[in-house]
Structure formats: C-alpha cells, structure tokens
Amino acid sequence: MTDRPTIALVATGGTIAMKHDPVTGAPVPALTGADLAAAVPRLADLARIAVVEFANVPSAYMGPDLWPGLSRTVADLLARPDIAGAIVLHGTDTLDQTAYFLDLTLASDKPVVMVGAQRNASEADADGARNLLNAVRQILAQGAREDLRGLGVTVTLNHNINAARAVRKSHTNNVETFNSGEAGFLGQVDEDRVVFARKPLRRQTLPLPERLARVALVAMAAGDDGRQLRHAVADGAEGVVVAAYGFGNVNEALYDAVVEAIAAGVTIVVASQVPHGRALPVYGFKGGGSTLRAAGAVFADDLSPDKARVLALLALPITRDRQALQAYYDR
C-alpha cells in the first residue's frame, strides 16, 4: 500500500497516554505516541503514521513555556510535502488553550487535529483509540476536498469536530465534554463518512514572537479588594486578563485597581466568566463595562478568560495600542 498518505502524530501526553499505576493507585504518564499508534492497528490501513515524541506531561503542565516549541514542531512537519496533516495528542485540561495557540500561530492550510481522552488507557471503555482513529479519518476526508482546506486547528473528540477558537471543555469526566457553545460543531466523524456542516469564520494568524508577553489572569470575586490585580502588576505583568462578571463588570475596588494598572502602562483585557455570550461595555456604574472601556480596557468579545490570555500572549509583542489590540479581539 504505497499510496497511503503520511500523517504526523505529535505526542504531548495527557490522559490518553496514561495508565493505572499500582503503586500510586492512580493514572500516571505511561505510553508514548508510538505505543498509542500501535494500539490502533487500523491506522496502518489508512495512512503512514510519522510519530514525533514532543513531551509526555499531564496537560496541567502545558502552557506558554511549551507552546512555542510545539507550534514550531508542528509547523516544520506541515512544511514537509509528504505530510498530509498532523494530529496532536494532548490532555484535555488545557487542550482548548493549546488548540487556540496553534490555530493562531500556524499558517499552513493543512489539517491539524487535536485529540485527547477522558478515560485513561487502562480502562475497559477507554476513548483514546476511537478519537485517534477519527482524527486520521478526518484528515483524510479534508485532504480529499479542496473546499475543506484552511479550516485551522480542530478539536475532535467523541465524534464531534470543534473549531479551536470556539471549543471549551464542559464536563470533568464525561466523554461528551468538548463543545462549541452557540457557534456549534463544524461537523461529525460518523461511521460511514466525515460530515462537515460549516467552516469557522473567525480565524486569524499572528506571528510567533521571540518572547511571549507576560500576561496574568485575575478572576473577579464577590467583595474583591483589587489586591490580586495590584500584585500581578507589581510582579511585572505586561498585561492582565480580568475574568469579570456578566457583560464584563467588576466592583468599585477592582475598578480602581484597573485604572491604576492602565495608568502604569499595563494592558487590561476584560473577559467574562459566563460561558456563553460576549463581554461588552454596557453598564455605566463605576466598574461597569462602559467605565472600564473609558478607562482604557480592551474587551475580549466571546473568548473565555483563558483564551483571552492566549491571544494577549501573542498580540502584546506586536502592539500595546488599545484600538489595535481591540481589533484582534473583534476579529
């Protein structure tokens, strides 16, 4: 079968690569990407699998220290003419953030599918093998259709295909955990074929800087006194994402801290803790969204606080101008 396409499989760890450890009595990293590929014999009937062992860490360990290297690794693989697409094996805790970082930094129009599992490989009903097989099938389906190029990075678990920008983890242990909220799925990997319903319209690509910006995330809490935000500023944050309430509202004390931070040259991005809807400058009370905008804050639109931080990591090295930054969040 010399006509099989080659698909890169980049392993980073996560539950999909874990097994039950009799010593600790809990799942721990145990399997390589090669192990996982070998456990799904049908893969070899569909494609040649080129395994790259990037890391083997729980996804709680994944973040800005590893994201640039992962992006460069995937970009180098996609640049090879023999590679039809790439699968990234990843833990589910930060999978949506990594997917968005890669979606923002990868310029190739070849498919990249993020895959994880909610159940470790020791469990009888482990979901990793099916998700991996579906990712290969999705890449082959996209490669067969010119109109499905350039969809960006997708997160495909439990048969559902999600765009990187919209996807969120919604359940701690259910295999039906990743969804795209009001945006909806891009499609499904069914038993007979891969069905696409739409394309993601809100995509952009930013250059990968030599150094990511230092961005903190501070969550508004009832009775917040602003000390966490002031500490982040004192600790050298170049930007702070404030996870606010509702449309993007904070109390008076946190508002005062926001004003101080902006006066000190720190970029403030306001996101909402609410899982659906957009952060908008609506309310006019002190700490309401319109007063935060007047003070110079940027609003994160419908991005989660985590993803608002991901975008800030890449956008702040380009510009500190508030209007230019707002344009990145509005795209």
Question: What would a concise description of this structure say?
Answer:
The chain is built from 10 helices and 16 strands. The chain has 331 residues and is α/β, with parallel strands linked by helices.
Descriptive overview:
The chain is an alpha/beta fold and 331 residues long. 29% of the residues lie in helices and 21% in strands. It has ten helices and 16 strands. The strands form four sheets. Strands 4-1-5-6-7-8-11-12 form an eight-stranded mixed beta sheet, with helices on both faces. Strand 11 (187-189) and strand 12 form a beta hairpin. Helix 4 packs parallel to helix 9 (305-315) and helix 6 (227-234) runs parallel beside helix 7 (252-263). The longest helix is centred in the middle third of the chain and has 16 residues, at 128-143. The chain starts with 5 loop residues before the first strand and ends with a helix.
Essential attributes:
alpha/beta, four-stranded parallel beta sheet, globular
